[in-house]
Amino acid sequence: MRTMNKTSRAVVAGSSILVGALLLTGCTINIGGTGMNDSMMGNSESTSGFSSNDIMFAQMMIPHHQQAVDMSTLAETRSTNPEILALAVQIKDAQAPEIKQMTAWLESAGAGMDMGHDMGMGGMLTNEQMTALSNASGAEFDKLYLQGMIAHHEGAIQMAKMIEDSNNAEAKTLAANIVKSQSAEIEKMKQMLAGM
Questions:
Q1: CA distance 178 to 94
Q2: What crossing angle do the helices spanning 82-109 and 138-160 adopt, rounded to 10°?
Q3: Which is the CATH superfamily of the domain at 44-194?
């Protein structure tokens, strides 16, 4: 009887570990790492030519980009710094079309914005940070905007690494463009911030 109890406990413990591992595999993502295991993520191509990984990226990056556009829209009425205003226009001009592009991916794949679970998106401002940014003006706004946008861009670059090895040429090109343009903007923003 004691042997059966030990065996039963071992089976239950093993099953719990396996279930936990499967849950973690399905719901975690190593954004900053070497990439995801395609078989783990079910990274098969849909009829649209976009893999499940490409689609997940779009589902995460659309709201991420939208927040950058929203932050830059705030700059139009809260900053008087010509460099900040020019940067805000540059960011909106780059990211608004990318939102449309990624939305088209989802439509072609028959996917919506709902990922089924909450994924972490690096660099996103919290509601409190967005409120503080919205309530600020002048030099205070400029500083908060630059600090927030640097972190935001760093998060976007890490997210873009999800699809830098995509088999889809459009997805791969978008990832490369995001890394290149936002890396350059980070350097520019760091210089601007240092000069304040």
A1: 9
A2: 30
A3: Ferritin, core subunit, four-helix bundle (1.20.1260.10)
Q: How many degrees, rounded to 5, is the angle at CA 86 between CA 83 and CA 91?
A: 120
Residue-wise over 154-173: b if at least 16 C-beta within 10 A, else e? bbbbbbbbbbeebebebbee
DSSP-H helix ranges across 28-81: 38-41, 52-78
Tokens standing for 53?
A: 């990984």
> Among 120, 107, 124, which residue's Cα sits nearest to residue 64?
124
pTM (two decimals): 0.74
DSSP for residue 124: P
Q: For residue range 56-86, list pLDDT tens digits in order.
A: 999 999 999 999 999 999 999 999 999 999 9
What residue ranges do the domains of the chain occupy? 44-194
Handedness of CA 84, 89, 94, 99 (dihedral sign): positive
